[in-house]
Every structure is written in C-alpha cells, then in structure tokens.
Amino acid sequence: MPALPNLILIGPMGAGKSTIGRLLAAELSREFLDSDHEIQARCGADIPWIFDVEGEAGFRDRETQMIRELARLDNVVIATGGGAVLREENRRVLRDCGTVVYLYTTVEQQLRRTAKDRNRPLLQRDDREQVLREMFVQRDPLYRATADIIVRTDRRGPRAVVNEIVRRVQR
Ligand code: S3P
Hints:
Blueprint: E1 6-10, H1 17-27, E2 31-34, H2 35-43, H3 47-70, E3 76-79, H4 88-96, E4 98-104, H5 107-113, H6 128-146, E5 149-152, H7 158-169
Parallel strand pairs: 1-3, 1-4, 2-3, 4-5
Helix pairs in contact: 1-7, 2-3, 5-6
Bound molecules: shikimate-3-phosphate.
Family: Belongs to the shikimate kinase family.
Binding site for ATP: 14-19, 120, 156
Binding site for substrate: 36, 60, 82, 139
C-alpha cells in the first residue's frame, strides 16, 4: 500500500489533541503518537521534571528532536505539544511531513479543561487565565500559518470533531 501523508494535530493546551488524535487514529486504522508522551518515555521522566531540571529551553530542544524523528514516519497520526509551533524549524518540519490540523479552542474552554491539571508546568500559577490569553495572542497566528485545516473543538464532542477531520482530509 502506498504511504499516506501523516495527520498532525496542533493547537493549545486543552484543545483535545490527545483524545481526538487517539480517536482519529482508530477511525483511520493508523498508529497514534503523542509527542509529549514520546519525550517522557525517552527521557524516563515526566514533563514537570524536565522543566524543573532542564528548564523550558531544555524541554524545547527535546521537543524539536522528537518532532524531527516523528516526521520521518508515514501513515500515522501525531499529536504535538501546544508550544511546538514556537520554533520555525518545527513549523517547517511539521508542514513538510503531512496534513496539519489546527484544533482551535477558546481560552474559556482551556480553563475548564485544564482546571485540575498538574502535568503542565506553564499553568501551575495563579494567573492561568492571563497566561493562556497571552499564549493565545502569540500562538494563534502561528497555528494558523502552519495549518492546512482549522477545526473548532469547543462547541462539540471529540467524536464530531473526528468526523469533521476525516471528511475534510479525504476531500
Ligand atoms: C506546552 C504544552 C504541553 C507540553 C508542555 C508545554 C505549551 O502539551 O508540551 O507542557 O507550551 O503549550 P499539551 O498541549 O499537550 O498540553
């Protein structure tokens, strides 16, 4: 069978990249890979530990390396971390290795979905809303510039989002 282009999910924390990625991969009978999960497995430590010990810059280097490796695969669904679009190299590598889907959500939805989260170092502070709003301003244009397709995830459940992605990538 010919290699099919990868499907790459980008978007902010709490957009549903992992949940939707898993469902999407099952729907298309493809393998699902989550960049954050692969980084943690490789490092043998969780993301808070990596941020603590190596700083955000150390995490970003690991993320860039992981994106390079994941981009060599074919026929897979890849979920990236919310900050993957910050580096120009990552944006280029992701665009070159498949169809990029921006899972758009609102800050209000992010706040709800990440309320009890302890695994995202950038949100372990009292001014989470302010942090998410600043990230939105900085990153939304980068997600848009990188994506082939934009899909809202704040107005319906993951199953409906998956159906829309399948419909639009098969066009
Ligand atoms: C980050 C998002 C996280 C993770 C890390 C940094 C970000 O991934 O990569 O905590 O900068 O937005 P999720 O988007 O999967 O939460």
